[in-house]
Design the sequence.
RNA sequence: GCCGGGUUCGUCUAGUGGCUAGGACGCAUGGUUCUCAUCCAUGUAACAUGGGUUCGAUUCCCAUACCCGGUACCA
């Protein structure tokens, strides 16, 4: 191995971590780890207006919950920005303003960039005129040849002097050779009038200074890549490898957005999706192994992932398959693990032993952790129900009462309260009395659960214990007789 | 408008110059001593269109269509 591989995830702190952002972070993480490289987290907070307080910390917390730990980046903490140090830090761009200004200055001195004193009003007017003439709106280069070597007044901006007739060609790891003509690229603003760098400058300077070897980011950055390459060339820096990931889409193929469902990873965690299910699902949005393996832990993904085999077309985020992964991973957990993960969805005054029993019975019926809150109710208290559902659809009231009484009688004698024993006892009640399963199992099950659909009667009775189970059967018989 | 990217079952995708184009999710049907769930089995459904190149194209090339992204002192 020649150069040490280094990737980065560089979100803007404008909100919660987006599912698409998670996928980008994941692919960066996987690529770095499988090459024994380093994964860097950098916070791109160069737009003062859009910054959301606390968003950076929330982003970091979510990444950690998902298991995507960074080798380099801000330390997690209450106010991460203040504690932001590190070998290539700081990692909050807002703390690196001097660095960007110095670099921009260097470009100006070298004649690669220039001060522009055009007012926003003039630019707006220019744009409107161009649009009226149906021309592509772009900067007219008014200040380009003035060669101002320092700020002329307070309102200025530094622009990149984009070469006039050049072709920028690069090789995208996912998409192959891509070409852009510089004639179509505007003289990009590098330093804004508030002294902050634009994304383009900050991104290139930091990627170089932090030693990033592979830039893996969303497809929306593809048209910006020639601008970045021009900057690398202006500085005389070597280029990193670029890879542009396909976008994640809504069902209607538009870019995945809030309007059509949840897009924040936190939303899914709150609904009871397991991190490993989310990671596994998201990993498969844009990449797939050649064999038909689908279940991957994070370490397995590190081994199997192949950036070169990443899909080029956008992928629709389909909740159905996520549900399937989630249900699968829930079933894989032991009751103890499950209990730890779904505590927040359970009442807190219930004894742990009982909860573990409930989880054992309900585990295979759970699609997400939050559903346990509803499921647990019938074990704690018999839900109100219509006595009518006690009667199996192929049976009648008399047979149902008989079935329940037989069950009650035979279960009363059962001292070893195990599932197998109970189901054997019920089966015996059926066999000895010339009844059908529906005559006994159904009403007993409804009697102890109060529900039309539920786990098997012996499973519920096992959780409830003998006393409560028999009480519920007795109640059911009384209700039926009263009717 | 201009620039760039993309197009295999409904969805995520595998794959190849010649195959019955494979898997998973979903859906449907059946089985698993009552319902539900699980599990199992079976079924369902795709190479955008038109030209080339070729003995032969889903695969290579070129158009067209459609979709997406970009076109900011936002990232």
Sequence:
């Amino acid at each position: 191995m020649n150069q040490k591989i280094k990737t980065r995830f560089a979100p803007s702190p404008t909100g919660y971590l987006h599912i698409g952002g998670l996928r980008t972070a994941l692919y960066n993480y996987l690529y770095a780890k499988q090459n024994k490289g380093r994964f860097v987290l950098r916070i791109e907070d160069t737009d003062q207006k859009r910054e959301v307080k606390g968003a950076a910390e929330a982003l970091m917390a979510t990444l950690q919950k998902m298991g995507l730990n960074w080798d380099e980046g801000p330390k997690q903490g209450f106010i991460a920005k203040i504690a932001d140090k590190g070998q290539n830090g700081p990692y909050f761009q807002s703390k690196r303003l001097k660095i960007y200004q110095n670099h921009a200055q260097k470009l100006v001195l070298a004649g690669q960039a220039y001060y522009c004193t055009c007012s926003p009003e003039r630019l707006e007017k220019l744009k409107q005129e161009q649009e009226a003439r149906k021309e592509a709106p772009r900067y007219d280069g008014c200040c380009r040849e003035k060669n101002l070597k320092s700020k002329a007044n307070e309102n200025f901006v530094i622009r990149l002097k984009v070469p006039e007739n050049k072709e920028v060609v690069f090789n995208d790891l996912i998409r192959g050779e891509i070409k852009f003509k510089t004639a179509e690229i505007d003289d990009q603003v590098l330093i804004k009038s508030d002294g902050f760098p634009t994304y383009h400058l900050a991104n290139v300077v930091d990627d170089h200074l932090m030693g990033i070897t592979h830039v893996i980011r969303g497809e929306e950055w593809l048209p910006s890549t020639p601008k970045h390459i021009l900057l690398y060339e202006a500085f005389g820096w070597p280029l990193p490898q670029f890879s542009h990931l396909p976008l994640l889409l809504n069902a209607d193929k538009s870019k995945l957005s809030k309007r059509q469902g949840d897009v924040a990873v936190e939303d899914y965690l709150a609904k009871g999706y397991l991190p490993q299910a989310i990671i596994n699902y998201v990993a498969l949005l844009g990449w797939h192994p050649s064999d038909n393996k689908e279940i991957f832990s994070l370490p397995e993904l590190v081994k199997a992932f192949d950036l070169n085999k990443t899909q080029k077309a956008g992928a629709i985020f389909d909740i159905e398959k996520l549900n399937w992964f989630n249900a699968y991973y829930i079933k894989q957990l032991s009751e103890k693990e499950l209990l730890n993960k779904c505590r927040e969805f359970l009442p807190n005054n219930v004894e742990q032993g009982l909860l573990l029993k409930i989880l054992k019975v309900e585990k295979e019926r759970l699609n997400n952790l939050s559903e346990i809150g509803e499921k647990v109710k019938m074990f704690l208290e018999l839900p109100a129900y219509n006595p009518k559902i006690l009667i199996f659809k192929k049976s009648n009231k008399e047979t149902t009462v008989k079935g329940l009484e037989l069950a009650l009688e035979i279960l009363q004698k059962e001292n070893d309260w195990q599932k197998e024993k109970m189901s054997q006892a019920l089966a015996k009640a059926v066999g000895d009395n010339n009844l059908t399963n529906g005559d006994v199992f159904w009403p007993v099950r409804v009697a102890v659960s109060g529900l039309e659909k539920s786990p098997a009667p012996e499973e519920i009775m096992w959780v409830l214990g003998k006393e409560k189970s028999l009480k519920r059967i007795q109640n059911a018989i009384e209700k039926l007789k009263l009717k």
